[in-house]
Design brief:
The protein is mainly alpha-helical. The chain has a single domain, classed as Phosphotransferase system, lactose/cellobiose-type IIA subunit (Methane Monooxygenase Hydroxylase, Chain G, domain 1), CATH 1.20.58. 83% of the residues lie in helices and 0% in strands. It is built from 3 helices and no strands. α1 runs antiparallel to α2 and α1 packs parallel to α3. The longest helix has 31 residues. The model has no long low-confidence stretch (mean pLDDT 94). InterPro entries: PTS_IIA_lac/cel, PTS_IIA_lac/cel_sf.
């Protein structure tokens, strides 16, 4: 596995863990454990940040004037972007749902 592939797999791994934490948070909220849900959402955001840092490095490299430094576009890279974007969307929606559920309890 190349260094680039390892970085791309880092995006996939972090995004997948982030999405899993967000769905765990939703389960906590459904059982009215809002404190636990918020803690899991915090973990989810931190994992998304890890994926974002890798993505930013790769995008910056792609903008390099030196063609030899540009990462190769691949199906694996597209797959990683898909995972990252869906994990962000899931977390954002779940955060909103948890906010609504919590307000209903007040």
């Amino acid at each position: 596995m190349t260094e680039l592939e390892k970085e791309i797999m880092g995006i996939i791994s972090s995004a997948g863990e982030s999405k899993a934490k967000a769905f765990e948070a939703l389960k906590k909220a459904k059982s009215k454990d809002f404190e636990g849900a918020r803690a899991l959402l915090k973990e989810s955001r931190e994992l998304d940040l890890e994926a974002h840092k890798i993505q930013t490095r790769l995008i910056t490299a792609e903008m390099s004037d030196d063609i030899s430094e540009r990462p190769e576009l691949s199906l694996l890279m597209v797959h990683a972007q898909d995972h990252y974007m869906t994990s962000q969307l899931a977390r954002d929606l779940i955060e909103t749902l948890i906010f609504v559920f919590d307000k209903e309890e007040e």
